[in-house]
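Researcher: I need the complex structure. Ligand is oxa(dethia)-CoA. Inputs:
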Amino acid sequence: MPEKRLTNADLATMVETDNEWILSRTGIQERRILGPEEKLTDLTTAAARQALENSGVASSEIDLVLMATWTPEHLAPSVACATTRNLGIPQVPAFDLNAACSGFIYALSVADAYIRAGIYRKILIVTGEAQSRYVDYADRGTCILFGDGAAAAVVGAAEEGDSAGLLGLIMGADSTGSELITLPREGRIGMNGREVFKFAVKTMNDALGKSLTAANIHESQVDWLVPHQANIRIIDSAAERLSLPTERVVRNISEYGNTAAVSIPLALYEAWNRGDVKPGHILALVGFGAGFTYGSAIVRW
Ligand code: UT7
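Model: Output:
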């Protein structure tokens, strides 16, 4: 994550808002944003290195790099290629994928398909967002929400006889909602917050139901819900859908705001790093975003 913090108090000096409003409506206290000299690829490279180290996989073993982002700082070279160059693996195939806040679930689905098809064995999924470069800091309806960051995961085939792995995944898009969140070229993020909210609650619940069915897992078996961190009230409604107590829901929105494609793997990383997520646990990942995209994955850790 970038070092620079943007607090609710900071935002109150920029637009007509206050800490009480932001906290009660969104659950956010602060976000991290890129410094003026900092680059998104500094973050994606650091996250990728850390994921390789934590997984014990050497960069030379990686067959493909998938980057999920909807806010690259440049369209070309792709963030994926800039990252492989920094990692010292410039010959590895690499591309960016834009499914906004559902980017990690979409990337997981692509990785899963390549691995099942026997095309690639080890895939590095990286997520990275430079949303602060695209936020309109005069629009109090959006500037309070978004933050920057990066997170990464190494994905490979489960060993034979290993019960851990991806049990079920669904993804989809409902483009009747395509105008609800927009980002024109050289423009700023635009959003109809109230409509997105309604869409999000319904979509998260539907997606969770479908992925649980695909995985043949009952909601009572879920150990951790790892939802996209968009708004604490949307997260609570997804938890309610699974009848999960708040202690079983990974929540870090107060510290980072909405980090789009980064938010699910970042939440998962923090829960794993704390020792909360243990081998054998059933995780329900779920996200939604501009497009209107959505996706959910059930994973046995
Ligand atoms: O990854 C997907 C990204 N997007 C989302 O997930 C967004 C989902 N939507 C939301 O999180 C919420 O809709 C928001 C947090 C964006 C807005 O909360 P809300 O409870 O839906 O507020 P609202 O848009 O219905 O606005 C209520 C009032 C309005 O004033 P009036 O018209 O009632 O006088 C707004 O102008 O709150 C006002 N308002 C604010 N007041 C203080 C809007 N933004 C602010 C603000 N501070 N930052």
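Model: Summary of the prediction. The mean pLDDT is 97.
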